[in-house]
């Protein structure tokens, strides 16, 4: 360690520590600048519709999502189980248009897809359709296993430890301890653990993105896929921040403060580069809120271990450290509370979602832990800090024990927060639920595009565009929508559509009572003597 520190010192002395710190800050800013971000994507509609039976092989497929996505893996599984990679596709706003490279034979096929949304989280699924007549559906392997999810969660926790306790601890040593070295070994261990966790998490992200098992972790394509997601930016910024924190423990004291400050900023930038909260709208509000929230957590949590160890080993020398921390923590807690409330309101939207969603329940657990943490911190600040600064030995021991308990609560909060990696927030679920349920119906005599908005149970409105079978205009005299679901015992819902000035037909007095697969039929009165009836299945969400 000594020789390593000397080598780093020589390099820094030659190049100039302030110049290196400024360069690192610029690197952080460049890496952290995101592309346009969106909410957690959800499937809206597919073509062919899941479960449909086609008369002939389609020339292309399409997948429409609630937000724009980037395809990762697109595969067509034939009836005999052989996969056919689909590599030719186009992105058209929220729709992925996929070319079918060959004519398909009869039987049931599976269109398997896996895409990445801009918040960095992969979304996958499959669509079954048949040519001619259904057959036994081919087997499609599961996208991910529990071992991978556990590894992702562990990696996230250790990354938090490295960023908050490691980089935050380095900041506390440089700015609050001012020369004191208590807790330095702990901070170095946390940073080194964070460096390993950040690196491994990139590969785990690639596995999750591709839906691949853990045994493929060493494959280059997996790491490339992870780097291509928005989480890749978080890893790059985190690595720089961790490196800055480590350097602040090695370089001279004057430069150490610059590196520590840049590292603390890097913690906030890393969290703001990807994730549910940072991808929420409005971006101009949520990203700064996440940045401040992350930096505030690092300031508070990072100071705990160095301060507690200093109070335990050298209570007299730790008194100035304690005084500076007790003065600085008040505005930091205010920032944490304000940013946390704003982000929670944006993510949860409705109070009922706190109990109705996994994200909300995790938030309640975190709030409970925060209540204990704030209560303990307030006790330390208002009851123990003064006597401890005055040199009362027993109070100093109580403060050390209390700081240890704070550390345990902080670690528990890290574990809860890491669980959000697998739970889309209510905000994203609401956006997905508001998307329409759509279907394209095509027959030789007539075709139609039917959209039911929103695509879930309750009051909805239907929009219908009709054409001839060869995509020509169809001047219908009347259009009637019939929704039926015989397995529920509910009588078919029949509503006459009204033609609008733009040529579309619309039904507004419509209520869909139950979720599931409905049959949508359109009775199109072409003339006084001819009615064309076309139908297709349509999925209504809960």
From TrEMBL:
It is found in: Cell membrane. Keywords: Cell membrane, Copper, Membrane, Metal-binding, Signal, Transmembrane, Transmembrane helix. The chain crosses the membrane at residues 157-177, 186-207, 227-251, 258-278, 290-312, 324-346, 358-378, 399-420. It comes from the Bacteria. The keyword Transmembrane helix applies. SUPFAM superfamilies: E set domains. Residues 40-131 form the CopC domain. Residues 321-420 form the Copper resistance protein D domain. It is a multi-pass membrane protein. The keyword Cell membrane applies. PANTHER family: INNER MEMBRANE PROTEIN YEBZ (PTHR34820:SF4). This is Copper transport protein. It comes from Mesorhizobium robiniae.
